[in-house]
Design goal:
The complex is a heterodimer of chains A (238) and B (465). The two termini of chain A are 28 Å apart. Chain A has helices at residues 5-11, 14-44, 53-58, 62-88, 92-104, 109-128, 133-138, 146-171, 177-204, 210-237, and one strand spanning 207-209. Chain A is mainly alpha-helical and 238 residues long. Helices cover 81% and strands 1% of the residues of chain A. Chain B has 4 domains: 2-86, no CATH class; 104-205, Glutaredoxin, CATH 3.40.30; 211-407, Class I glutamine amidotransferase (GATase) domain (Rossmann fold, 3-Layer(aba) Sandwich), CATH 3.40.50.880; 427-465. The longest helix of chain B is centred in the last third of the chain and has 35 residues, at 430-464. Chain B has 465 residues and is an alpha/beta fold. The radius of gyration of chain B is 32 Å and the shape is elongated. Chain B has helices at residues 2-22, 27-48, 50-60, 63-86, 89-93, 108-115, 135-146, 163-172, 197-208, 234-242, 272-279, 294-302, 393-407, 430-464; strands at residues 95-97, 121-126, 152-157, 181-185, 188-192, 212-217, 245-250, 260-264, 284-288, 305-310, 327-329, 331-332, 345-347, 349-355, 359-364, 367-373, 376-379, 381-382. Chain B has 14 helices and 18 strands. Classes of the chains: A mainly alpha (238), B alpha/beta (465). At the A-B interface, helix 2, helix 3, helix 4, helix 7 and helix 8 of A face helix 4, strand 1, helix 7 and helix 14 of B. Strand 1 (207-209) of chain A pairs antiparallel with strand 1 of chain B.
Chain lengths: 238, 465
């Protein structure tokens, strides 16, 4: 069970379930309000536009209207949540346990960091599973573009992974928790607003670009190695 | 004094640092100011706290920094390489479209047009302040378009964050409002309303072809182009100008010099010699309204178009009460001239037209009111070009398409054969909407909470044992 220490830590905390429930309630409300907006919008195009031409005239695809907006909302949630999660992974108790594990030779620094990173992604993965109910509801009335949804889910998980990698150097250096959260928040918001938001836009609309995937992988690996160096340096220099 | 001065001095530094991000329009000036500030700070610290500075330098650039330095160097190089990779064209165009209908993929007509584009064009999206921001859609769409042409660039502007740039644009394009987009090529610019692929490509095709100069026939009671009253034509003139179509008022003597002659709701009959001139006219006549006049009836009849019954008002009493009523065109045939018409076209009243060899374009359910043939486009609705009826967006679109298509058919991108990317319209009952609200907002989170209580209890029981 040693490998899943982070999971145990978080799943044994009632705060996690409360925060997750709040997230799901907000997400549900966002979906509901988008649905209401959509039904309002199509009612602007009245009954007198009929037949197949109406589709060409109104040109409002339900999938294109609902899901990108919903996943954009998720991306903002991720930008706020990842710095907090990443910073909490370097805190005292976990750090001491990691140290023991390293001394015992059960893991390397890189594997520890990688594990924490994957843990952050898994949290979001768990949170996003219940949100699959929205397209299922929608499929009763219209054809859902599952491909677009798949790409959007890939996008949000990749965003979480990338931001977790970005936040890991600060999150693992054992500076004060509040300072660490603040610094990571500033970093995540700045990078997201100026850089990642346009980068991830294609994902919300069902397009997965090779250049962006490569960029995400290279950038994440670079930050992982930086985090590893900082982690080692923290252990040596205190 | 020092206690007050120093915090203020540091606050100034913080303010300058934040201003670099907050005010992008003055970024270079603020960066210069910030560098001057840093230089000044260095001198102050150098002469007031030399020893502290040296010890700080050693603490920062000590053994720890030296151990990290090679790693940092590699890190910076890798970041630079990844940024380079992001812009490699071959990698950029390699993509996977996971959507079932290819809902954002560029249509074949757009792709064909963009591949032959050879002049730089910039598309600027003005982000809305009080309604849904389509920035992501715009970016995703522009990235798709850029796959087909390296001449396209794009950016987004926020009316508040980028106030100065927005004001400059607004001065050039008076009808610009947040939510619109502007297409620029050199000194030319035009505004587009509906943010979709076809509208953007159509605007690009418009702008690279230069100005569309249309002769506006005057002297027969047409709306005045500088009249902002209900029955004037100033709104049509301004909105067309912002879309790159300029109306030049001309007298009958100049008709022969015009490739396209536009008659907008004439109310006075043509003279006999004008009728002859118009019958012998070689260009394209675009006639909106005026079909009650005997002179125009004669010209139309000469071209095989016969005016039939007057159309009944299709609105109920309460609609358009301040006007004479209204006829709504709700039937649109498949034709490039109707690209981008996104709703019903409204006109004060109209006539159905009979024409054997014409292409029907639009009308009501039992009549054709908009039709065309070689050298002639006729819209038999009345007053549709006046300021009052310009409030119906599709009216402007109809006029714009007619003039653009008549003037430069080779530049007009035809989307008629492209995929239909609209939704299946559906209706959700209020009861079902309530059900969705309850399940999504309360049911699912509550279930997750109960799951948490179960897990937590289980762990607690295990710990107790």
């Amino acid at each position: 069970m040693r490998t899943f220490r982070e999971f145990k830590e978080i799943f044994n905390t009632p705060a996690f379930y409360i925060l997750a429930a709040v997230f799901l309630a907000l997400s549900g409300y966002k979906f509901y309000s988008l649905l209401i907006s959509y039904t309002d919008l199509i009612s602007i195009y009245p009954d007198y536009i009929f037949g197949t031409e109406a589709r060409q005239l109104s040109n409002i695809d339900v999938n294109r209207f609902l899901f990108p907006r919903l996943f954009e909302f998720y991306s903002y949630m991720i930008v706020v949540a990842v710095p907090v999660l990443s910073s909490s992974l370097g805190y005292e108790r976990l750090y001491e346990l990691d140290k023991l594990e390293l001394v015992a030779g059960g893991a390397t620094e890189l594997s520890l960091i990688m594990r924490k990173l994957l843990f952050v992604c898994s949290i979001f993965f768990i949170l996003f599973v219940p949100t699959l109910i929205y397209p299922i509801f929608l499929s009763v009335f219209t054809s859902v573009d599952w491909g677009m949804l798949l790409s959007s889910y890939i996008g949000v998980i990749l965003l979480a992974f990338m931001l977790a990698a970005l936040c890991s150097p600060i999150g693992l250096t054992r500076i004060n928790f509040t300072v660490s959260v603040f610094l990571n928040l500033v970093l995540a918001i700045a990078v997201f607003v100026y850089f990642f938001e346009p980068l991830f836009a294609s994902f919300w609309f069902g397009i997965v670009r090779l250049s962006i995937l490569l960029f995400i992988v290279i950038l994440s690996v670079a930050f992982l190695f930086l985090a590893r160096r900082l982690y080692v340096s923290t252990r040596i220099f205190g | 004094m020092k206690k007050v001065f120093l915090p203020l001095f540091y606050l100034l530094g913080l303010f300058l640092f934040l201003a670099i991000f907050i005010t992008p329009e003055y970024r270079y000036r603020i960066i210069i100011a910030f560098l001057i500030y840093l230089g000044f700070l260095f001198i102050v610290v150098r002469y007031t706290a030399k020893n502290e500075m040296i010890s700080f330098y050693h603490s920062v650039f000590g053994a720890r920094f030296k151990s990290l330095f090679p790693g940092l160097l590699v890190f910076i190089l890798v970041i630079a390489a990844s940024l380079f990779l992001l812009n490699v064209r071959q990698l950029k165009t390699a993509k996977l479209d996971l959507t079932t209908k290819g809902s954002i993929s560029v249509s074949s007509s757009s792709a064909k047009y963009l591949q032959q584009l050879n002049s730089p064009v910039e598309v600027i999206y003005i982000r809305p302040i009080d309604k849904e921001d389509n920035r992501s859609y715009f970016i995703a769409l522009m990235e798709e378009l850029r796959d087909y042409s390296t001449f396209i660039s794009y950016k987004t502007l926020h009316p508040i964050i980028n106030t100065i740039e927005y004001s400059r644009l607004k001065n050039k394009v008076s009808s610009l409002v947040p939510g619109n987009f502007v297409v620029m090529s050199g000194e030319n610019y035009l505004v587009g309303e509906h943010l979709d692929e076809k509208e953007i490509v159509r605007s690009i095709s418009r702008i690279v072809n230069g100005e569309i100069a249309i002769c506006y026939a005057k002297g027969h009671g047409e709306p005045e182009l500088n009249d902002f009253s209900e029955k004037g034509g100033a709104i049509m003139y301004g909105m067309l100008a912002d879309r790159g179509v300029t109306l030049y008022p001309v007298t009958p003597n100049d008709w022969d010099k015009c490739p396209v002659l536009f008659f907008a709701d004439p109310s006075v009959d043509l003279k006999e010699e004008e009728i002859v001139r118009l019958i012998n006219y070689k260009g394209t006549v675009v006639l909106f309204g005026g079909v009650e006049l005997s002179s125009f009836k004669k010209i139309l009849s000469n071209r095989g178009m016969n005016i039939l019954d007057r159309q009944k008002m299709s609105f109920k009493d309460y609609a358009l009460r301040d006007y004479e009523g209204g006829v709504l065109l709700d039937t649109f045939y498949k034709h490039p001239l109707l690209n981008g018409v996104k709703g019903g076209v409204v006109t004060a009243y109209g006539y159905s037209v009979d024409c054997k060899d014409c292409v029907p374009l639009a009308g009501t359910s039992d009549s054709v009111m908009y039709l065309g043939k070689e050298g002639m486009l006729l819209f038999a609705g009345q007053k549709s070009t006046t300021n009052f009826f310009m409030r119906f967006n599709s009216n402007l679109r109809l006029i714009y398409n007619a003039l653009f298509f008549s003037f430069a058919p080779e530049a007009y991108v035809d989307f008629t054969e492209d995929k239909n990317d609209g939704p299946g319209l559906f209706a959700i009952s209020p009861r079902y909407l309530n059900l969705i609200l309850w399940i999504c907002v309360i049911g699912v989170p509550l279930l997750f909470l109960l799951f948490g209580v179960y897990c937590f209890k289980k762990v607690k029981d295990l710990r107790t044992k």
